[in-house]
Amino acid sequence: MVDRIGRADFDDRDAYFIQLSVFHEDMHDEAFTITRQTLAYPPPTFSAKPAVLLAGGDASIPGGTYRIGSTAEEGFIFDNEKWSHAVDVKPYRIARAPVTQSEFVNFIEEHGYERREFWSAEAWTWREREQAARPVYWKKDPEGHWLRRDFDRWVPLEPDWPARNVCWFEAEAYCRWAGRRLPTEAEWEIAARGADPTLAHRQMVGAVWEWTSSDFWPYPGFSEDPYKEYSSPWFGTHKSLRGGAWPTRSRLIRTAYRNFYTPDRRDIWAGFRTCALES
């Protein structure tokens, strides 16, 4: 492949398919870390930890017209980012950091998993079927201390680190308990692009994937790229996530990069941040 890249007739089409193959393999690398966690295998040697989150409170985003999505001038993009388009949003307040493990403990200990009023009908059906009473890799030790399974070992919860391996249903229920809501996909991207300069960008990428309230749908002007099965089969059945997690390759992470999973998935490195309810 290196020899092929170095040839004089190597063109933009060749470059596109090589980048596509590299980025797709990057996604599988992240999937391997998910599998290792699921099966309680030892962590990979490149294992990293999310940074301790310091900034709290909400960032205020002015209402107005913003642009989200990607343009052809930005280099390689995936088809679901096509194309950059304007969106109108009302003023909103979004948390500067994802929900932490200590915050999620409060939801559990106030019987959030047992209180039907915090769960939609679909979410409650899922909770009862799975008998979910806590995040999938959490438990209490005999002394009543919360532990989290980190690959092949149990460790004490890290209070200021993002809650992770929670599904969309759990995130939605937490928000109802907290009197908050999930951000829309557009709100998340607008905030990540720096609409409020006090919002620390480092806290929006690279720690955990962040669930949004939005269903995964195509943007205006969408068209399939050569890998036709990448996005189209999942429109309307998945929820959108943003931000990238600690095992996501840095070359993949951009503010416009979209991820998508069904709302019941707890194995992925996903957490969430919240928005204030509109007054």
Give me the secondary-structure topology:
Blueprint: H1 2-5, H2 12-38, E1 58-61, E2 64-68, E3 85-89, E4 92-95, H3 101-109, H4 121-130, E5 138-140, E6 146-150, E7 153-156, H5 168-178, E8 180-181, H6 185-192, E9 209-215, E10 239-242, E11 259-261, E12 270-271, E13 275-276
Parallel strand pairs: 9-12
Antiparallel strand pairs: 1-4, 2-3, 5-6, 6-7, 8-13, 9-10, 10-11
CATH architecture: Alpha-Beta Complex
Q: CATH top level? A: Alpha Beta
Write out the CATH superfamily name: paralog of FGE (formylglycine-generating enzyme)
Structurally, the number of domains stands at: 1
Strand content is 15-25%
- Give me the strand/helix succession: HHEEEEHHEEEHEHEEEEE
Q: Your description of this structure?
A:
- A hairpin with a 5-residue loop joins β5 and β6.
- The chain has 6 helices and 13 strands.
- It has one domain: paralog of FGE (formylglycine-generating enzyme) (Alpha-Beta Complex), CATH 3.90.1580.
- The protein is 25% helix and 18% strand.
- The chain has helices spanning 2-5, 12-38, 101-109, 121-130, 168-178, 185-192, and strands at residues 58-61, 64-68, 85-89, 92-95, 138-140, 146-150, 153-156, 180-181, 209-215, 239-242, 259-261, 270-271, 275-276.
- The strands form 5 sheets. It has a 4-stranded mixed β-sheet. A 3-stranded antiparallel β-sheet has the order 5-6-7, with no helix packed on it.
- The chain is an alpha+beta fold and 279 residues long.
- The chain is globular, with a radius of gyration of 20 Å.
- The longest helix is centred in the N-terminal third of the chain and has 27 residues, at 12-38.
